[in-house]
Amino acid sequence: MVTARPYVGLDKHGAHHILPVQAKGGSDALSVIQIWQDFRVAAQKFAHLIARPIAAQFMEDDVIALFEFEEVNDEITIRREHHYHLVSPEELEDEELASYRRAAQLESR
Question: In this structure, what are the phi and psi dihedrals at residue 40, rounded to the nearest 5 degrees?
């Protein structure tokens, strides 16, 4: 069984998570089978950690979709999905970056 490269992460509450990461682009698409395998490997090799498989799907027009999955009653579901338009740093003004930073700080409160 081939799975994504796993990372171990520590959240703000001190809980340890195993984060298998899948990334697809072009004509390759994410597969529920791969995510299911990530959950199985996490359960076998990292049983003491909380499994949080995540995936990135590169799409057209410099858009990336980021997903976090969960397993509920033996069913894989998307826990979170966010889409981002990727831009190069040269395309942003310092004022824009400062504005985004302020908005992100307000959201995290």
Answer: -65, -45
Tokens of 13: 């509450």
Tokens in use for 12? 């703000």
| Nearest to 35, CA basis, from 70, 8, 61, 7 | 70
Q: For residue 45, which phi and psi values (nearest 5 degrees)? A: -95, -25
Give this prediction's pTM.
0.78
- Given a cut of 70, the residues of the chain with pLDDT beneath it are 1-4, 107-109
Domain residue spans of the chain: 5-107
Closest of 62, 70, 58, 1 to residue 30, by C-alpha: 58
